[in-house]
Design goal:
2 copies of one chain form a homodimer. Chain A has 545 residues and is α+β, with helices and mostly antiparallel strands. Chain A has helices at residues 3-19, 27-37, 74-77, 207-223, 240-251, 257-269, 296-313, 316-334, 345-351, 365-386, 395-410, 428-436, 442-452, 464-476, 480-496, 532-538, 540-543, and strands at residues 43-47, 51-57, 65-72, 86-105, 114-121, 145-150, 155-158, 163-174, 181-192, 238-239, 280-282, 288-289, 411-412, 417-418. Chains A, B: Keywords: Hydrolase, Signal.
Chain lengths: 545, 545
């Protein structure tokens, strides 16, 4: 970045600060300084590819492709490549970092440049299918194919882009007929800020649970960079929803609380001038929030994350410092709840992105009510821990009123299921959020969750993000066996399909599900799917027996 | 390049040196050191694009495309680019160097990466036609299209590849729908080792001659890098044939004799173990000759270049140092001449690449005889200048014998034209080399050259390289008017078609001529076409009147 741009950005910021009122005033600067102060050092590890593979069509495999071993990697290093033209290599694990390779002539002087296309895949299909058909919803530049000109040989080439991958397809697009060459010394300088070694699960634990835990730890580790990223391939940045679940996982594994602290400060420092949190922060080249990205429940989940952080660390100083932010987010509920205690769904939808899940047909009125109650309750607990309950003295009454409203307006006593006032869709999300918010009793929750499995046309979860809340709701209702079974079936299902890290989107019945209508752009190492780590370690009596 | 590769190369070299006899022994090391010592410093100049252009189809224009002005460059810098998607810019002149550009958001935080394709063209057609159809003869990687991922915004991107271009087409291949951006601050850090300012031609000189001279100087300047390159786009390296003509041009313009000296030393230092010169040298990552690239007349033209260098500089020390190389090259003629004084064309063809021109159908027996005699004569002159004629005492008799053999076997007295013994093709090349070698009298030469213009099925020159020798032969025969007319028609013809620098291949009747069956891979700034600079300035009485 040029100095002039930095200077312009600074000017814009100063201008805004001068003419608009900034809710947090001088706190903001100090919060950003603290975020910088707690920025973790990355651990760099040199990783080498293990073998040459073929990615072959296979109807039985995930997304209809599988990797088949061809030969050890050394076979490539001595192979004249000019007529070979294409090869795929396998690092044997998911990596996030900088890839480099070397080229050398097999004998004759290299008289002309080489041109390669390198395609990086977290899963086999990514290096097999064409990216050409992607109609941009997200930037096509997230897809990890790079074209490289190597203007002289021998040379070592390091791609300037940080990549997330296990497989690399190397295609030769240009070469001189006057010499042949080897590709050799391929490596990835892999990076993560996860430096602690999580405690091992006891040997006696079910092997599948151990596998799920291992893949969950890998997922979290790969997403732990200088922030908790949502995914190291895409979007490579901090989202509050991912932060919430990553911090949960971290609390029970790596226990690197400074990273959570950094993220909490970063989000606070980059909140909008009215004091509301933006859902996502981009770190490079200078940290800033994504404008206009107000995501309703993510702003509220910040408070829950802060409370969890306090419980895990006892760091009163930080949490008191950030308490004004949590307190302000409560206004999101206060200003959007109707007199009858129901959230004003139509109004919220106008001002906020209401997410909950990548599930286009999900009707979100009930989850909105649920997450709002959940956030108020957790925020009140936070206030109590800080001795600040007087500052939010309206919360208990407000919470009760909203619970009553939910029970009165959203609960079908006959079916035992919660449905909206505007749409009678029966969804997992609705039941889950009514349970997590304590609108239901344990028994009612159990009934609702059980009913889901025998009801037709249910809207089921589309992502591990929603599935996390499903597992939690099962546990909250005392459905421990079902919780374990669901966790093993869902996350174990990804492992059975070859996952090295857990995915952004997973539907056991559809390998090609994609929030972006193009499954190769999905993130296959996605933070919000790491939470088996949390469940397995928080509830050993359920998952380790 | 890694140290281990450098070490391996050194080992190979030492091994060869230990087990094979090296004709030049210890001289080689010292020659390479001197080549390094005279490596010129590059002059770097920041250049900015002038305007936005459209490259539009136009049947009247060179290669059926022309650049049409659209707007000043500033209009681009303030233009939101996301929906614009494609633009072409014009630097207004041919440049060789490193291109960079910056991107910045138009306002909203940039939340995703950008992907661009940048295509660099020396001529308009290069940025208009697709490169996909190129069937590799040379490396496709020479074609100057680069795909660039810009992982965060704002950012300044510098392409790692040195490029040669006037036009750049920028295509947006990927962007996020959540922000727009500007491209701005485009520049090229242009480089050349030409630092001297050649003398201006008098104002009274014919404007077309002045234009040709200016474009010739630009061509030479762009090719003057750390060696005399053949072309800064392709092959970016030193060939003896190009060196010969560039040094001629340099002697009458930039007068940077150290560059000639460096190239002479480099070629000597990298000659093969038997003492024969290889035709071409690649500088990076470590200087080395292209193996097996023995080009008959290029090896001999080294001697002529050395003689010209001595005449231009009086640098006896260098030329005496390199005299063993020139002396050894004479064996190429001695070992390939038959008892009757004719070159053994069939034998030479087996061991050497006989080039003369990019002209597939050219029959090369007569030019081979001619260039051999020419080289012997020039080498003898060199020996005389050094006082070494006793070391090559056989040359005068050998030369005479070969001239007589040519007149006896290759001359058709009736037509006044030279033709081969194996093929009766009438070519410019045959007449030209018989004249340059002094096989003909002036009158005979004039008759031959004149006859060419009225004879059917003549093989005419395919490149400015051959055309250089044509102009010289016209001058040598006293056909001054014809020389001027030919120079103006041929090189002026390129200017009329829009040339900023002179081209590798030019046929006034065919814009699509290509030695590689794909005209976009032609070099459009090619050293061997710079020699109008030499003619105009060496022969002011012909060209400046």
């Amino acid at each position: 970045m040029t100095k002039s741009i930095l200077f312009s950005l600074t000017l814009v910021f100063i201008t805004i600060a001068c003419f608009a009122q900034d809710y947090y005033g001088n706190n903001r600067k100090q919060w950003l300084q603290k975020a910088e102060q707690y920025k973790p050092k990355l651990i760099i590890t040199e990783k080498k590819p293990l073998k040459v593979v073929d990615i072959v069509p296979d109807t039985q495999s995930f997304q209809k492709y599988k990797a088949v071993d061809v030969s050890p990697i050394d076979s490539l290093y001595s192979m004249p490549f000019r007529l070979k033209k294409e090869i795929t290599i396998d690092f044997g694990e998911h990596l996030t970092g900088y890839f480099s390779f070397s080229v050398r002539s097999t004998g004759l002087a290299a008289d002309g440049p080489l041109r390669f296309k390198l395609t990086f895949g977290e899963v086999p299909s990514e290096v097999a299918v064409s990216f050409d058909s992607y109609k941009e919803g997200l930037s096509r530049a997230w897809l990890q194919d790079e074209v490289v000109s190597v203007m002289y040989v021998p040379q070592t080439v390091t791609l300037p882009r940080r990549l997330a991958f296990r497989y690399i397809k190397i295609e030769l697009l240009g070469s001189s007929p006057y010499y042949d060459f080897n590709i050799h010394d391929m490596k990835c300088m892999a990076q993560t800020s996860a430096k602690n070694i999580p405690e091992e699960l006891p040997q006696a634990v079910d092997p599948m649970i151990r596998k799920i835990d291992r893949v969950g730890l890998n997922t979290l580790k790969e997403c732990m960079q200088t922030v908790y990223e949502d995914g190291p391939k895409r979007d490579q940045r901090l989202w509050i929803g991912d932060l919430y679940l990553e911090a949960l996982g971290n609390n029970y594994s790596y226990k690197q609380y400074d990273l959570t602290k950094r993220c909490l400060y970063l989000l606070a420092g980059l909140s909008d001038l009215n004091g509301y949190l933006l859902a996502t922060v981009i770190e490079n080249p200078v940290p800033r929030a994504q404008d206009k990205q107000f995501l309703y429940e993510y702003a509220l989940l910040y408070n829950v994350t802060l409370k969890d952080y306090l419980e895990a660390t006892g760091d009163m100083e930080t949490v008191k410092d950030l308490w004004p932010v949590a307190k302000k987010q409560l206004d999101i509920v206060r200003t959007n709840v109707k007199a009858n205690g129901l959230m004003d769904f139509e109004k919220v939808k106008k001002d906020w992105w209401v997410f909950f899940d990548w599930k286009e047909d999900l009707y979100k009125e009930v989850p909105l009510q649920g997450v709002s109650i959940f956030a108020l309750k957790e925020s009140y607990k936070l206030a109590q821990l800080l001795g600040k309950e007087k500052e939010v003295a309206d919360l208990p009454a407000l919470t009760n009123k909203m619970i009553k409203a939910a029970r009165k307006n959203l609960y079908n006593r006959k079916t035992g299921l919660f449905v909206g006032t505007g749409d009678k869709q029966i969804s997992y999300a609705s039941q889950i959020w009514m349970i997590l918010s304590g609108v239901t009793s344990k028994a009612e929750g159990k009934k609702a969750l059980s009913a889901l499995t025998t009801t037709q046309d249910v809207c089921y979860p589309g992502t591990p993000y929603m599935y996390h809340y499903y597992i939690q709701s099962l546990i909250d209702c005392g459905m421990n066996l079902e919780a374990k079974e669901a966790l093993v079936n869902y996350w174990g299902g990804m492992i059975a399909k070859g996952a090295d890290t857990f995915w952004e989107a997973y539907d056991p019945t559809n390998d090609f599900i994609s929030p972006y209508d193009f499954y190769p752009i999905n993130s296959y190492c996605h933070a919000w799917s790491c939470t088996p780590v949390y469940f397995i370690r928080k509830y050993p009596e359920i998952f380790q027996k």
